[in-house]
Amino acid sequence: MSDLRKNLLAETKRIVIKLGSRVLVEAGTRGVNTAFINKLAESVAVLQEAGKEIALVTSGAIGIGMGRMGYSKKPDNIADKQVCAAVGQIDLMHAYRNAFEKQKIAVGQILLSADDFRDRNRYKNLQNILISMLKHKTIPVINENDSVVVSEIKVGDNDKLSSDVALFWNADLLLLFTDEDGLFDSNPKTNASARLLNLVPEVNSEILNLAKPGEAGSAVSTGGMYSKLEAVRAVTRSGCNAFLANGTKVLPHEVLFENALGTLFLGNAKKLASRKKWLSFVSTPKGSITIDDGGVNAIRKKHASILPVGVVSVSGNFSMKDLIDVKDVNGNKIARGISKYDSRELKKVMRMKNLDEAIHKNDLVVF
Fold this sequence. Notes:
alpha/beta
């Protein structure tokens, strides 16, 4: 283990562990991989004994439900997916409870939707719930509420959810467990000479290009490597480190205390404040505006507010105080903030002078 990795992981206090469907769902039976969850509980007990705080973000409910319901592949119909999630969630949580009970550790389930992150008060309440659970030595087991959630309030895949949890909880480390050994410089499934990257200082465009956008993980999983890299980019920009490893080979305590195989992604040395994290990465915007070049220069160089006169177009239906994205005329996402107008009002007043800000500078974060 390198000195850099050893020192970073030694300082780690709060850890979010994201568990992919491919390590939680048995390939043959499509049932719960109880052998893995038992080993996971033993590993988490080691971390807890060492003074670490742990939150789990779990996939697997839909995949396990598919096995119960007799599906060979993930159904296309959202109602059928929700049935699979409702059925599979019972088996999954039963396995977690039994495994952690053997270690004399309590677990508690938290089901979330995107609205829990959009609303600042609900977001703060969620932070308090996690802190309270951990004070009672209870491990939060977090999942999206797939049995009832619809597209408008869906967080996305659980890679995105895990990064959201790591951000609002101010975690030091996000562990992503999948069935890959880490990030390679090319696809190891098609290139036998692909090299594992042990350390990635920054998730830039070159790193993102190592994966394909929109590529699904498997018949039972949603997020592929690209979604994992997006999750890693979000947390590392905020100052949280991340580690990608093969959950079929590596356990959490081995990442921290042993030289476990995988890829370490370094977090930014400057950590963002909680509100900036919420504005930047966690919340799901309800719409967007496009601003002219003068507006772009003003917010980047002068940290100015965005005025209606600089707004050239409005997209989506949003209300006053909703979070929205800000784009330049080329369609690049450059900022995010809280709108002081609803979308209909803003369309009427855009390009007009001497009006109140569209987004105040204190409610704006520039990327």
